[in-house]
Amino acid sequence: DIQMTQSPSSLSASIGDRVTITCRASQNIRGYLNWYQQKPEQAPKLLIHAASRLHSGVPSRFSGSGSGTDFTLTISSLQPEDFATYYCQQSYNAPRTFGQGTKVEVK
Amino acid sequence: QVQLRESGPRLLKPSETLSLTCSVSGDSMNIHYWTWIRQPAGKGLEFIGRIFSTGSTDYSPSLKSRVSMSIDTSQRQFSLRVTSVTAADTAVYYCARESLYGDYPYDFWGQGSLVTVSS
Q: What are the strands, taking DSSP E only, across A1-107?
């Protein structure tokens, strides 16, 4: 199985901050990397697919980059509704695997 | 708009079989993969398995011996069975669509169904 490792596991940030979350795959997954946002008591929502493609309806302050084994999710200016947990997920091969999550909390 | 909804028993005893069904609306089931994912309380997301309209499946190696999935495209449903459950199977179970457009993301999710295993 491909192991996905996110860092940090949690972070504290303020409104307006630039936030960066990284995700590393245990082997080359080319660009088959997706990012999800999950709020308490809700299902995850797709933010970015194919490493850098913004899903329909997702604000442009979210962006993704990377390829191969190293990927980044960036929130350019953190908004109140962005406090949540973020997961990366590889769709390169089966079984699909997720990172352990990064919780973005209020500073 | 594509919608998914999980249904099934919420409380099980150890050694029983978990059975969940996901009902799909707003989409043909013939194009995409249909997936089950679970999340224990306070923990991360775990891929359980996926099924295609042909019945082809992929299961998580760690659950493969206890998991089976089926699909009925005419009824717009797919199902999950997990045998011999223990407390470790207590989790919110999500069904999701793995889109075959754009590098296979999970673009639509059900709201989740909490399944508790307790004696």
A: 4-7, 10-13, 19-25, 33-38, 45-49, 53-54, 62-67, 70-75, 85-90, 97-98, 102-106
Residues A9 and A74 sit within 8 Å (Cβ to Cβ): no
In 10 A of CB B68, how many CB atoms? Answer: 15
d(CA A46, nearest CA chain B) in Å: 6
Residue A8 CA from chain centroid, whole number: 11
3-state secondary structure of B88: helix
Q: What integer pLDDT is reported at residue B101 of this predicted model? A: 81
- Confidence at residue A47, expressed as pLDDT on a 0 to 100 scale: 98
Distances in whole angstroms, Cα of residue A2 to Cα of each of A5, A96, B36, B76: 10, 8, 18, 31
CA neighbor of B22 nearest in space, from B55, B66, B63, B70: B70
Task: Name which of A1, A3, A2, A4 is nearest A102 in CA terms.
Answer: A4
pLDDT of residue B104: 92
Name residues 94-113 of chain B within 8 A of A (Cβ).
Answer: 94, 98, 102-107, 109-112
Q: Could you give the dihedral angle defined by the CA atoms of residues B85, B57, B43 and A60, in that order, rounded to the nearest 10 degrees?
A: -160
Q: How far apart are CA A101 and CA B40, in angstroms?
A: 13
Mean pLDDT of the residues in chain A? 97
Residue found under tokens 């940090």: A8
User: How high is the pLDDT of residue B103?
Assistant: 86
| Residues in chain A closer than 8 A to B106 (CB atoms) | 34, 36, 44, 46, 89
